[in-house]
Amino acid sequence: MTVDDWAAGATIAGLPIPSEPDLVRMRADRHARLQQNLEAQGLDGLVLLGCSSVAYATGADGPGEDSGRAGLFRAVAVVVRGADAPHLYTPYWDAAPPELPADHLHGPLFPDVEDGIGELVEALGQLFSPGSRLGVDEQTHPMLRALGGYEWSEARDVLGPAKLTKTPDEVSCIRTGQRITELAMDATRDTLRPGLRQTDLSGTFLRRVFELGATANAIDPIWQVMTPTRAAGPWTSHGDLAYPTSTTDAILREGDVIWVDAGISHHGYASDYGRTWLTSAKPVPTQRQVSQFERWRTVVDAALAICKPGVTGLELGRAAIAANDGIKPWIEHFYLAHGVGTDSAEMPLIGTDLGEGFDESLVMVPGMVLVFEPVIWDEGAAGYRSEDIVAITDDGWVPLSGTRYDPFEVTR
Amino acid sequence: MTLGTMALEDSARVDFTRLRAQRRQRLLEGMEGAGLDAVVLGRSGNVRYASGARQLWRSGTFPFAPVCVVVGDTQRVHLLSVWDEGIPPEISHDDLYGMFWNPAHLLAALAEIPGLDRARRLGTDSLTPFFSQVLPTVAPQAELADASGVLARARATKTPDEIACLTVAAALAEAGLSALEAALVPGVTERELLAVYDECVARMGAPTPPSESVAFATPRRGPVRFRNLARDRSVGDDELVVLSPGALYAGYEGGLARTRPAGATPPPGTADLAARCGRGLDALVGACRSGNTGADLYRAWEATGEPEPSIALAHGMGIGAEAPLIGFGRGAAASLTEGSVLSVQSWVTAEGTGGYLRRELVRLGTEGPELLTRGEGSQP
User: Fold this and answer.
1) Above 70 in pLDDT, residue B256?
2) ipTM of the prediction
3) Dihedral angle, C-alpha A115, A88, B126, A270, nearest 10 °
4) Strands A105-106, A87-89: pairing kind
5) What is the pLDDT of residues A315-372, one digit of tens each?
6) Any idea what the CATH number is for the domain that residue A350 is in?
């Protein structure tokens, strides 16, 4: 799929953002980043079990799977400091990237299974000497019993800094996945009318994303009907909104306000679509709903107006709060903005319970990706929520999400 | 009357209150038997088993985090959830703890769970270096222990309500198969087949496929390998196509696989290949008897003369794929217990013809194996 010149000459660290990602270059750049961070952390290697970490380290494209299956038949990635390529151990040989050297593509390991641990011990023994310092993202009990001869630490100390900023190819990859998601959502929104079930919307959306070329679906799509008041919605521990609650076969009714949230995986990268829809064959927002949308737009625009390299997360948060008359425009358990990459929510996280000191330490640099998802709550009339995605560029930002907010229109 | 996803006013379908109570009882008994005072669970399947909560489904695996805590003393189940929607009524608001990005806040919430501070053995289903270090701070007297075996044993044998859930899931998967068969024509792509399947199960109310690996064409020429990722290549009219839909109902996974020619005329050798596949499947299903071990499945397969396949012969099924894994040289010692459910599959290939897969869901009953999926040519 080609998306013409959407980046309009924007650069990250002097490099143009391509309209389509060069996947081989993208994976090589990621490997180089992991190597740099292994060096910086003084670690000898990484042993990775989680899907998003394996996808980042190796470029392996798995089919979407339930966690039970994805755990029993998991891919494992091993990165050796100083090596040219990662090792991938997988039951899904056809999911390996084509450029991975044949001697780096191995049959599966079963770190969750007691009588599978011998092969993992052997595989690591061939790559690392006893006492090596290794980063790991999960340790199963068989691993804990069998692999005591290494010094283990958190893999996120290496993955975190590597993933914090994206290369131009990664940004392009996110943009393409986002475009697929948006086109599928346009088709889904066209079907919305009273009498459909939430799961009917899922059906249309999932069919369309695969027809459009998605690698995998990442999350059960959310079509939450928002009650007019907080109290009419589910009980919450903090008194703020419950969101996102999971989809059922609930029947949608005329006028239902739906907060949509969904994401696919495109070559390992999560997309993130958030919009507010109104259930009706001919949805026409009320003036109050239009005001909610305009308030939301004002909040995002206020943050985007100052968004560029050097700005802190705290400054972005304060701009958003000021634009909302001093009221924090996001849900208590979430954030004003989060990053997106091989995880659907990753650093930088702005406005969380990590606190203002943390937000102040988050300085925007080119290559960061931000998903702004403020919430405008209008007690008595539900509220408005959408998500705008941008990538920080050398001199500002470039949008990665589209500009349709139907049935709302941007008037300014 | 149990087969259906909607609630009926006479409560004719799955009794979920009973299902959850029996699961919780099994888990608590297992904990007691293993000397675990409390368990901290992170794996989605384990969390669902212990809590019965309907939480947001995400594809794939995520590193361990304390999502669910079960305390033996109090018999209470505590869950990471900001809201009560999707949370069963026996888990009270007091039993819910919030979602935090700051680990200090999470640990503070865990420290407030009644009885955790008295635990002497604290089981987990997995760990990370970080949680190995900090979990002892919320249970200062406890040594960390392995709870994965306790969970696996509790989950292995299914109650009648669990079997009902698995059967509903199998029926949903069979609906997916019908949709795939209807869409299978020469020229369709694997990705289009995946799209059709996904829409079908979603419209039946089950929009979270256990696997998106549901259709692949096998080549007429050259070596035949099992594939997992959907491709954009069109299916040729002389190709055999593997269709392997699954579905989830209340967390329980059902699934089956069939192989169909894309066009009107199957490739030469199809009848022989189908017969080989059928013999393999019959041999495996026949070995699914309580008292047997994984080695009996290996022996049954070897006796057919087929080479060891590149995929598992069988694995447990319940809340998703689970232990035992019998295949890839593993699981020979695994004992097959009465009341457990296995996904059993036969994969055979022939150069010049293609590949042939059949997969069934088998319950290990008192009298022997019982198919939960409607088998090829089986009568109801």
Assistant:
1) yes
2) 0.96
3) -150
4) parallel
5) 999 999 999 999 999 999 999 999 999 999 999 999 999 999 999 999 999 999 999 9
6) 3.90.230.10
Q: Can you tell me the distance from the alpha carbon of A265 to that of A62, in angstroms, rounded to the nearest whole number?
A: 10
- Residue B8 banded pLDDT, cuts 50, 70, 90: confident
* Cβ <8 Å between A69 and B320: yes
Instruction: Check residue A196 and give its pLDDT.
Output: 97
The domain boundary, picked from A137, A162, A187, lies at A162
- Locate the chain B residue with the closest alpha carbon to A55: B60
Mean pLDDT of chain A: 96
Contact of A157 with chain B, judged by CB distance below 8 Å, is answered with no
Task: Give the domain-ending residue among A127, A145, A162.
Answer: A162
Q: Are B100 and B82 in contact (CB under 8 A)?
A: no
The CATH superfamily of B16-154 is Creatinase/prolidase N-terminal domain (3.40.350.10)
Distance from CA of B254 to the nearest CA of A (A): 12
Q: Is the pLDDT of residue B378 over 60?
A: no
- Structural contact between residues B218 and B239, judged by C-beta atoms closer than 8 angstroms: yes
Interchain CB distance below 8 Å, A72 and B98:
no
pTM, two decimals, is 0.97
Torsion of CA A61, A64, A67, A70, to 10 degrees: -40
**Domain coverage including residue A245:** 168-399
Chain B touched by A103 (CB under 8 Å): no
Residue A110, domain CATH: 3.40.350.10
Based on the domain organization, do A121 and A175 belong to the same domain? no
Residue from A206, A247, A361 whose CB has the most chain B CBs within 10 Å, to mutate: A206
Please tell me which residue of chain A has the smallest CA distance to B232.
Answer: A213
Considering the domain architecture, whether residues A254 and A194 belong to the same structural domain is answered as yes
